[in-house]
What we know:
alpha/beta, nine-stranded mixed beta sheet, 43% helix, globular
Amino acid sequence: MDFKAQILQGIPRALPKKKVYDTQVNHAPKRKAILTKEEKKLALRNALRYFPEGWHAELATEFLAELETYGRIYMYRFRPDYEMYARPVQEYPFQSLHAACIQLMIQNNLDPAIAQHPHELITYGGNGSVFQNWAQYLITMQYLAGMTDGQTLNIYSGHPQGLFPSSPAAPRVVVTNGMMIPNYSSADDLEKYNALGVTQYGQMTAGSYMYIGPQGIVHGTTITLMNAFRRKLGMSESPAGRVFLTAGLGGMSGAQPKAGNITGCITVCAEINPEAARKRHQQGWVDELIFNLDALLQRVKAAKEIKETVSLAYIGNVVDVWEGFDAAGVLVEIGSDQTSLHNPWSGGYYPAGLTYAEANQMMAEAPALFKEKVEASLIRHAAAVNRHVNKGTYFFDYGNAFLLECSRAGADVMAADGVDFKYPSYVEDILGPMCFDYGFGPFRWVCTSGDPEDLVTTDVIAMEVLQEIRAEAPVEIQQQLQDNITWIREAGANKLVVGSQARILYADAEGRAKIAAAFNTAVQEGRLKAPIVLGRDHHDVSGTDSPFRETSNIYDGSRFTADMAIQNVIGDSFRGATWVSVHNGGGVGWGEVINGGFGMVLDGTATAAEKLKSMLFFDVNNGIARRSWARNKEARFAIEREMGRTPDLNITLPNLVDDNLLDALV
C-alpha cells in the first residue's frame, strides 16, 4: 500500500506483525508502576476497544507486557512502516485542505529528527505527548483525510472522539489534553490516568501539533539570553568571553547552545543523556562534546582568555559543573537550568551521583529512593548556585519549575518573606515587562509546500513588514522590533530548520496581523506555492496562565487563576482559528498551569484575510488587557495605544491607589 492508502486505511484490516523493539531509538524511560490488579484490567479493556474482538487474545498479552515493561501501553505493533516526517501538503489524502495541513503538522511533531521519544509519540519534555498510543494516531489521520470543511474533529487527550457536523467557520479540530477535575491533578493522578489510557500530558506544542523543532525555543532563548546579559553587563558591554551555564539538551532545552552562539557568549550546557547530546552535536546545535570535568574547566578557561564564542556540551551532571566551577574559581556571568523539572520523578531531572542508566533503573524499580536522590541533588544544586550568585552570577529560573521543586525539596531558594523565591523567573525580569506586556510573543509559521524557497520568501516578507512598523513605532518597542529584525535577517544563515520549513519571531498584534496578511496575499498571488500554517507557542502574551512562568509578573493576586487561557481558546475558536487546543500542564508541570494554543491556515482566500485580522487581534490583546488590569505599566501603555487605533476596542482600565493611603490604614 502506498502512503495515502495507509493513511486512509486507519486501523489495518489485517493484524500487522509484531514489531521488534528498536534499540537505536531514544525511548521514554519506564513509567512508575501505579495500577492495581483491577486497574490493569481496566487499562487493557480501554486499549483493546480500538480493535476487533478477534484480535483481543493476542493483543491483550502483548499490551499487558508493554504495561508492565514500560508502564504504558503504546501499541508498538501499530506504528506505521512509512517514514515519519512533514511531507508537502499535496502528498496527503484530503477533502479539506486545512485538514491536510493538520496532518502535516502532526507528522512533523513525530519526526524522529524532532521528537524526543518518537516511538512513544512524545515530542519533548520527557512526557509531552502527541497521542497516547499508535491507534489514536492512525484513527486521527484517517479522520483528517476524510474530513470536509463542514466537520470538526474532537480530540480528547489524544483520543479521536469523532467527526461532528459544524460549519466552514468553525475550527476543524478542537484538542483538549489533561483536562482533569481540579482535585485530581496530582503527580500520581497523571501517572494513574495516563496508564489507564484516559488522559495525557500534551506539554504546550506537542499535543497541539505546533512544535517546529528546537528553532522555536532557540528564538525565545536568544531573546532571553541577550536581555539577561544586558541586565548583567549593561547595554554597551559585549557577552564575548562571558559564561552562560545551564543544563538540558533534550527537545526544548537543546536550543540553548545555539542561542548562546547567536548571542555571542561561551555556553556550557550539561546533559546526562549521551544520546541527546550527540543528537544536538550531529545537528550542529552544539559545537563540542566534552566528557571530562577537568577537560571542561580547561576548555572554558581557554575560551574566556580569547573571548571565544563557543558552545560546549558536558556529558554529565550539571551539579558537578556548578560545584567544579566554584572550586576552580571560574566566573559564571549568567546561570540557569532547563531540565524538565515539571516532571522530576519520571526522567525530567537526573540526580547527581547516579549514572543515566542507574537513574533510569532506580526511578522504575525504587521510585521512593529515586525521589530522595532527586531532592538531595536539588539541595546541592541550589547551594552551588547560591555560592556563584554571591560571586556575581545573575541566575534566573527558566520556567521549568526548578525553583519550585528546589523549594519543595527544602533547598535554600526562598526570599526573606518566605513566600517568594530569591531568584526571579525569566518572565518576571525579562520576557514579562520587556515583551509580553507590550504584546510581543512567539509568532510562528510553517510553509506547507515543504520548499525552502518559500521559507526564504516568507523571511523577506516578515523582515520588510517589521522594518516598516519600526519606522513609525514608539520608543518603548524599538528594541523588541530591532532584535527581531536582526533575528529574521540572520535566520537562514543560522541553519535553524529541523523538520518542516518553519520560522519564528516575536511580534505584537500589529506585526502578526500585517505579516499574516502579507503571507496570505503571497499565497493568493502564487509567490508562495502552498498555504502557510500560522501558530505560536502557548508560551505567549495571552495563551497561558502559569503562576511560576508566563504570568509570574502578575502581582494583583490573580496569577493562580486560569480565566485568560480559557477565554483565549474560546475566543480564538469563533474568530477564525483552524484548530484550537487547551491543556493542563506545560513547561512547569501537571496541575501547575493551564495553556491554550491555535493553528490557522492561510490559503490565500478572502475568508482567511478576514479571519486573521479578527483572531490575531484578539489572541494578543486579550492578554494585554488582563496584564493592564493587573496594573502592569507596560501593558497599560500598550492597551491604551491599541484603543486609540481601534474604535471598537473598549477595555476596563485600573484606577491606581496611593500606597501611603493603604499603609496608613492597614
